[in-house]
Amino acid sequence: MFVVLAMIQIGRILNEIYQALNNDRSKYATWVKENFGSQHTRYFQQSRQLLSMGDFAIKYSSLGKNRLLQVDRLHNKEQYQEIIKQHPYPDITEDRKGLIFNEHTDAAVTLYNLKQGGVDFADFDQAYLLSCFNKHWIEQKTVKKIKDWLDTFSTPEEKERAFDDYILNKMAFPPEREYQVVGNLQSLNTILSNLIIYHKTYIQQGQTDWITEVNKDTFELARNVMSTLAQITIPERIEPSESENTPAATPVKKQKKQSKKTEKKGAKK
User: Fold this and answer.
1) Is the model's pTM score more than 0.70?
2) Lowest mean pLDDT among 7-11, 106-110, 174-178, 240-244
3) Do residues 116 and 199 share a domain?
């Protein structure tokens, strides 16, 4: 945060020097080369670029230099700003080491790229999950692969279902581009079992550290999913009886006796 603010001030000073040199790029480049090393050139350029972003860079300086500069490279900044208006950044006082801001930015840029790439039905929650799986926002080249795959489905409904499955499968395409319903009962049982264990081990014991550590957006998504699951009635499984489960014992002793009788008869002959 403070590095970004410091670089913005440096950018303001560099702009004043640039103006004093009559906005001559050649003179400005010569001045930088004569007074500073080559390693400073990039940082000076970034400082002026951060300054040109205006209040956005100051307001969201917690994103860090690299994230802000990456956002600045977006072609349609108005569309990105519109996404931010619809899904505003959380309060900085609730952030933890800038992680929430970074995740929110990744989700916003992912949604921007999806919209630009033609996946118009994608929403912010889906973009958030994709960027979390990817640990960064989704690049346009990845969006193109997604779009090409979705185009193999004929109706909008099929495309939306396929996109949901792609997200649930953590960004893994079905083999040979063949549509498959993703997710299995074993993994769902594991997730629910882990949730129950965590609840008994930590939450029921009165621990509250998880409240500050859990991602708010992910928690809200999970809450909605659990509300939906709570309305579903699971039919009782008819377990096989114990006698059905137990295989019939092999009469080993009888087999041995029979084999001995056969041997004796053979010996008499």
Assistant:
1) no
2) 240-244
3) no
